[in-house]
Design a protein that fits this description.
This protein has helices at residues 2-17, 23-30, 34-44, 74-81, 83-86, 96-124, 140-149, 219-222, 244-251, 279-286, 298-315, and strands at residues 50-52, 59-61, 151-159, 164-178, 181-188, 193-198, 202-211, 236-242, 260-263, 269-275, 292-296. It has 317 residues and is an alpha+beta fold. It folds into 3 domains: 2-98, Arc Repressor Mutant, subunit A; 140-217, SH3 type barrels (Roll); 236-315, 2-Layer Sandwich (Alpha-Beta Plaits). Helix 1 (2-17) crosses helix 3 (34-44) and helix 2 crosses helix 3 (34-44). The termini are far apart. 11% of the residues are buried.
């Protein structure tokens, strides 16, 4: 078994180093007959995407497959790490231990390099921090690491609406930036469902050794009809008329939804969008003041009239 394993690595590295290498050339390199190489290639088919480009053209890898970097799962890495303890060292061919050490060294270097790159990226990302806290811990690095490794987080979270701290376990799925903040979308074990968490509200955070799978979770479906981050259960179709003075600016806005925009004869713009929550959208519309008129739903026109009345009460003499 050890001879075969050693030969398999030689075959994979040979194909990676010389795409198009033929079976006779592999046989000569591995010092076996061609029939043995064909058997090895059939066995390796379940481990690596080896393809034959046609008669006389030799073997290559499909896609971007490569042995370096070593794209192992945690289980595969554990199994490979245990190899020296389960193999009979007296039966190992010359060079096996040095080859094994090189592979493990490459894996260690790759993990360290990825860690350094990730830390550098998180250091240069500057987002807002809570105004009421001078020391806001940066949980960005461990959260990204947990997402990539698919490992559960153990956290202490501050729920602003109830002003309380809760201990939770969260399977982190996606990290989303919104309005100078980061939000984490993942499965909350305490709530028993997918939830959205504001990163700055984590008081403590630890990456556990427990792994998870996202299953068939689809972020696009989850965020459908969501203006920014707040999600509701209903659907509201807004129609807003923007004046000609701001119409061109509305068209260049970067949005997370796909509105329908229609140019009107007077140069103004009719903006139509269906959303599951209203607050963030209304805040966005309000920034345009009298250059934005809500046409539908009619109930929101009445809401705006009441708000304007309160403003006049504040600023009227």
């Amino acid at each position: 078994m050890s001879d075969k394993l050693y030969r398999w690595f030689n075959i994979i590295y040979a194909i990676q180093a010389r795409p198009g290498i033929t079976a006779p050339e592999l046989a000569q390199k591995c010092d076996v007959d061609v029939r043995t190489i064909y058997r090895d290639l059939r066995s390796l088919d379940t481990l690596a995407p080896i393809v034959n480009d046609g008669y006389g053209k030799g073997y290559t890898f499909a896609g971007d497959f490569a042995m370096y970097p070593l794209n192992w799962t945690p289980q595969e890495e554990l199994v490979f790490t245990m190899l020296p303890s389960i193999l009979d060292h007296t039966q190992l061919p010359p060079g096996f231990e040095s080859a094994y050490d090189k592979i493990m060294a490459a894996r260690t270097r790759e993990k360290r390099r990825n860690q350094d790159i990730l830390k550098h990226v998180t250091d240069i990302i500057q987002m807002g921090s809570p105004a009421y806290r001078e020391d806001s811990p940066n949980h960005l690095l461990p959260v990204i690491q947990a997402i990539l490794a698919e490992q559960t987080l153990s956290v202490t979270y501050h729920t602003q609406s109830r002003n309380e701290l809760t201990e939770r376990e969260i399977d982190p799925y996606y990290l989303i930036p919104r309005d100078q903040r980061f939000y984490l979308i993942g499965y909350c074990h305490l709530a028993g469902q997918i939830r959205t968490f504001r990163l700055s509200r984590f008081r403590k955070l630890e990456v556990t050794a427990r792994s998870f799978e996202k299953g068939d979770f689809n972020l696009a479906n989850y965020m459908k009809h969501t203006w920014s981050i707040e999600r509701g259960t209903g659907q509201i179709t807004f129609k807003v008329k923007f004046s000609r003075e701001v119409a061109r600016y509305i068209k260049e806005e970067e949005m997370f939804v796909r509105p329908k925009m229609t140019d009107l004869p007077d140069g103004s713009l009719l903006f139509e969008v269906t959303l599951n929550h209203d607050r963030e959208f209304l805040n966005w519309v309000n920034q345009y003041g009298p250059d934005a008129e809500i046409l539908e739903p009619r109930s929101y026109r009445k809401m705006m009239q009441e708000k304007l009345s309160r403003w006049r009460g504040l600023y009227g003499e």
